[in-house]
Predict the 3D structure of the following.
Amino acid sequence: MAESVTFDLTDPQLKLDPYPLFKTLRENDPMHFSPLGFWVATRYDDVRAVLMDRTNFGQGDFIQNIRLFYGPDFDVLAHSAYRWLSEIFLYQDPPRHTRVRGLVTLALTARRVMEMRPRVQAIADRLLGAVVDQGGMEVIHQFAYRFPTLVMCDMLGLSPEEASDEVLAALNQAIADSFVVFEMRAFSPEELVLANRQMDFLQDFFGKVFAARRLDPRDDLATDLCNARDEHGPLTDHEMATVAIGLFGAGFETTAHMIGNGLLSLARFPDQWDKLVANPALAVSATEEILRFESSLVGTNRTAFRDTEVGGKTVRAGERILTLVAAGNRDPEMFDEPDRFDIERSGPRHLSFGGGIHFCVGAELARLEGEIALTALVERLPGLKIDLETAQWRQEGFMFRGLTRLDASW
Ligand code: HEM
């Protein structure tokens, strides 16, 4: 008889290792209805089916979703933080989503990513060059976070003067704020005041950056955003700032965790690290395996537009569904020995970049960063030893899986 399972988002074990619970759910109740009031999908096919299905599933009405927390009279858009979140295209359905995504995709082309390669390489070399003689570092803060932060600044074209500590701190705060919606909760009154203040500051900051690029265009994404237009015309300054802050947010923490989770996995499977040192060209497939094995984004969610069958269960119109990409990535129906970390694995694609109309627009950049970070690490620090005892998983939230500390020596 199937084991009965409860899915408790606050269970501390989920932060340490969610995979045993994901396995139990997948095997016993793959379309689980949580007492918290939403569905939880864990099989690869079900997760993929929901993400690919733009007819029956989507983000739903942002304002209504927020009013569920505060009541029907809450003026959502009067708060800069919620206004910003409401305009992030990840949280929108077509046609609004289509327009902004289309313009961003035009600006974040494969060519731009390819052209970034030497600069991304230079950033990795500079960061590792600064620590190579120290004999050790705390990897998460000294490398995993700094690397994508600098890459994101480079991508947007923010000079070191523009990307001041104050701006980076505000961007970090905005990113933390966006998790609030992702985690399906509301801001506390204090958080909302702070989030509004930071958002006003960032809108003002990016407004000045765009004004400067209009006067003095450069070969950067900030300039591309100013020039991007479709049949409806250009993006407004407000939309452009939303995109810039959103891209920074989407591309920074996820990538930092990919690097941290990757180093941890390579340390837990030392034969795989040795393989990579012997053949750094494996960094490309190693990046894919890291994304599959320890996805930095555990899941995402959708709302059903109409009654829809998924994995033999009916999700009713208006119900939410949490699609656990990390659980799908370990589904034995798709991956041979899914709990084995194998940097030479080939076969089906993982789900870590999502799927369908919201498929990650930064996937190519994230892959490039993974490849360059791993190659630089094995080439510059082949004797790297990770102290597994120091690994600490982030405690806040559930959707992002990443480390807050990991010590290394060489
Ligand atoms: C390891 C790194 C990354 C992971 C695991 C990741 C994962 C994801 C996932 C799963 C989604 C879809 C979410 C959903 O369907 O609800 C997504 C969307 C998105 N990602 Fe990434 N991402 C990464 C890096 C990046 C980077 C580097 C950028 C920007 C340069 C970026 C920008 C975006 C944007 C803008 C979206 C929204 C797309 C849309 O709604 O159409 N991501 N990402």
Q: What stands out?
A: The pocket of protoporphyrin IX containing FE is lined by residues 51, 89-90, 101, 246-247, 250-251, 254-255, 258, 296-297, 300, 352-354, 358, 360-362, 365-366 (CB under 6 Å). The longest helix spans residues 237-268. The two ends are 51 Å apart (CA to CA).
